[in-house]
Design brief:
Helix content is about 55%, strand content about 15%. By secondary structure, the chain is α/β, with parallel strands linked by helices.
């Protein structure tokens, strides 16, 4: 796991937030900044949303424009800017996984709490290599891309280590437990892994049974809410689109809506303490 202070994605988010705050304190509009920096307004917007990178020279220019002259503050933000431009292990998978999924992995690596509701198949973070390979065959035609995706998922699982103190809460539809992916042996291995993970002090896995009928999860679809430690509330919502693509949002109001939905789903789902008993029944049905 990459430490937050060394995580380029997290540092980019911090830099964006600090620059927006500094512009607000300087009482400058994006149009005024564009004029002073000889940029287009769209470039200012892209910088503040993280759509484009920022050179250290431009960063220093912005800080000067915003009246940030304290040497310690400037040096700190320059260091943040340098870190945000560095490569991390997940950047090696950018071509195979795409920009958004790669960014999500970077955020996931520094979250303090991950809440995930999943339909149809198990969350990628808790999939065995065999299970992940079978699922990815549906979405990735090239064998090399499948191998790269499975490899990336395997590396992501390092953050499940209880020693890292990251909390994971999963609510998974019963359909994922009932759907045979690959064959009975693949499913048995996958289900046993879930039992093992659920025994960890930092992991909770709950099953949402068919018997609960219609619920809010059907409105939102599969999603994850990442929560980050810090002085201010900081969340990212990742919504699944077409199985493997993601839509990321850091809108605080939207994040609150998804967290409320997740809490409601947890109340409907079977307690994590009952997972072993339920999985044993699913395994028995395999035979």
């Amino acid at each position: 796991m990459t430490e937050p202070k060394k995580n380029p994605v997290v540092q980019q988010r911090r830099l964006r937030a600090e620059l927006r705050k500094a512009r607000d304190q300087a009482r400058l509009t994006q149009a005024q900044v564009a004029e002073e920096m000889d940029w287009s307004v769209s470039k200012v917007i892209r910088v503040e949303t993280g759509a484009v990178g920022l050179s250290i020279t431009d960063l220093r220019g912005l800080l000067q424009l915003y009246g940030v002259i304290d040497k310690a503050a400037v040096d700190d933000l320059v260091q943040v800017g340098k870190t945000s431009r560095k490569r991390a292990w997940w950047d090696n998978y950018r071509e195979s996984l795409g920009e958004v999924v790669t960014k999500f992995i970077g955020l996931e690596q520094s979250a303090s709490l991950v809440r995930q509701y999943q339909e149809e198949v198990f969350p990628g973070l808790v999939q065995t290599q065999a299970y992940a390979t079978e699922v990815l065959k549906v979405f990735a035609a090239e064998r090399e891309r499948i191998q790269m995706s499975v490899e990336a998922r395997n590396k992501r699982q390092a953050i499940l280590d209880p020693a890292l103190s990251v909390r994971f809460e999963f609510v998974i539809e019963e359909s994922a437990f009932r759907r045979i992916v690959g064959n009975a042996e693949v499913m048995r291995e996958q289900l046993e892994l879930l039992k093992t993970l659920n025994r960890q002090p930092n992991v909770s896995i709950q099953v949402l049974p068919f018997a609960k009928g219609v619920h809010l999860g059907m409105k939102y679809g599969s999603y994850a809410v990442l929560e980050f430690s810090g002085d201010e509330q900081d969340y990212v919502v990742a919504r699944e689109s077409r199985g493997v693509d993601l839509v990321l949002s850091d809108d605080l109001e939207q994040a609150g809506e998804y967290v409320e939905s997740f809490v409601d789903l947890q109340k409907l789902a079977t307690p994590s303490a009952n997972l072993d008993e339920m999985i044993d029944r699913y395994i028995a049905d395999l035979t």
